[in-house]
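Researcher: Sequence recovery benchmark, item below. Answer with residues only.
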């Protein structure tokens, strides 16, 4: 553990490590594995991009009819994992998921490249697609619909915030004696313990 990094506040520590990851050769430092489970407890996992992190939690965006969104609606407990190999660090985050506000979603959507905004309208995420040409036809239709005007956020597209109640920092050590620090949220802050590797 780098003694210069914050210890008592796992969010501050995460943000410091994220900044290091952004300055490293990692191609996409905001990439994270998002694990969800359906109402019967069957898990699924996929890579998504972190779009915001602060003391309130970790934010990502998606189509509200996607598999991940439907699973979150059925079972709002999820987990994230960041693996920054050049830093020899892994960070695991667990907690309940809440929708972001419409204002937050609008503000973020407005920052997306126009092509990504069009894509959000065109994609019926996670649903069957007859052919890739059908997707391209939908893209062309949406481009024509919003020609020469701003693309508004679709009402079926928004964001979620995972509110952490557990954050674990894993640091690589020789002989597989890895360092594991688990922070658990309490009524007054965070408790920190070490775990065997």
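Model:
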């Amino acid at each position: 553990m780098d003694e210069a990094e914050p210890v008592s506040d796992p969010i501050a520590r995460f943000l410091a490590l994220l900044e290091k990851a952004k300055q490293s050769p990692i191609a996409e430092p905001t990439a994270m594995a998002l694990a969800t489970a359906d109402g019967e407890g069957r898990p699924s996992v996929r890579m998504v991009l972190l779009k915001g992190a602060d003391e309130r939690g970790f934010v990502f965006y998606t189509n509200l009819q996607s598999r991940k969104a439907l699973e979150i609606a059925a079972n709002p407990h999820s987990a994230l994992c960041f693996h920054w190999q050049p830093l020899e660090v892994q960070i695991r985050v667990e907690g309940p998921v809440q929708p972001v506000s419409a204002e937050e979603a609008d503000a973020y959507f407005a920052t997306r490249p126009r092509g990504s905004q069009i894509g959000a309208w065109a994609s019926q995420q996670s649903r069957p697609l007859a052919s890739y040409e059908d997707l391209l036809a939908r893209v062309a239709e949406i481009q024509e619909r919003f020609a020469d005007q701003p693309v508004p956020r679709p009402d079926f597209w928004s964001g979620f915030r995972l509110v952490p109640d557990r954050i674990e920092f894993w640091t690589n050590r020789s002989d597989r004696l890895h360092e594991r620090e688990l922070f658990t949220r309490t009524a007054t802050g965070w408790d920190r313990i070490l775990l065997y590797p």
